[in-house]
Amino acid sequence: MVKLGLIREGKICMNDKESTKEIINSYRKRKSQSWQNILLFVGTGLLIVLGAALLIFWLTGTQLDIGTIFASKTPTPTITYTPSPVPPTATITLTPTESLPTETPAPSPTPTRSGAVIYIAEENDTFFSISEYFDIDIFTLLVYNAGEDRLDLDLSNPVLFVGDEVLVPAPGATVPTPTSIPYDVLPGFRVEYMVRPGDSVGSIAFALRSTVEDILTYNEDLEDPNAIYPGQILIVRVNLVTPVPTDEAEATLEHTPGSVFTLTPSP
User: Is 240 exposed, middle or buried (0-12, 13-18, 19+ CB in 10 A)?
Assistant: First the structure.
């Protein structure tokens, strides 16, 4: 009886130990399952949030940078300014320098004309510009070229064309010196008078002791007494009127280059 009791007590003790072990094992199992449930719940929530975020980005067309989402915060570096030493300012001292003497270039020698030359007219040339270039009186230039057949020059309208050959007289050349009309020349004696710059029919008539009407009569092509021009040849009958001055010296014409008198016997 004693042994049977001991055996029973031993079985009871063993049963108690086994039940305690089973309880511990079931607790551990439940505990592990609860952690798994928590992890599963958290993972499901993250997936739902991530899916919602992806859907929003897809609908709005915004590009998603995965690296910026999971990037760890990087501490912003702090810039520390270290003052650098300021170099001393250099002082500039101006030292006057001696200026070298400037050499004045010597003028190149200009060839001097010694005689008459033929000048070929170029574009925009005129008798006036040519007379200025060669330093010659324009009236003298026109008179010297009036008798040149190659130009066929009309002194009333001295037009110059490109390529025309212009005779430029020698330096110092002038129109021949005029011959004065004596008082004892017979009245009505005809002379050929070359009009000079500044002349008018009235001044010519007064100087040659003639009349404007007589000059117009003997020059049929002279319709307008104001239309005379330098170099024009007029037929003038002299000594038709009594001169006002009695002193012959006062009545003598003072002509500039360009006036020519040619005595012609009256018919």
Answer: middle
Closest CA to 264 of 240, 234, 225: 234
To which residue do tokens 């004696």 refer? 189
**Which of 44, 60, 76 is where one domain is finished?**
60
Work out how many domains the chain is built from and give that number: 3
- pLDDT tens digits, residue range 202-246? 999 999 999 999 999 999 888 888 889 888 899 999 999 886 654
Q: What is the pLDDT of residues 203-213, one digit of tens each?
A: 999 999 999 99
Could you report the per-residue pLDDT of 7-31, keeping only the tens digit for each? 455 555 556 666 777 788 777 777 7
What is 137-186 written as a DSSP string? -HHHHHHHHHT-TTTT--TTS----TT-EEEEPPTT--PPPP-PPPTTSP
Say what the pTM is: 0.47
73 located within any domain:
no
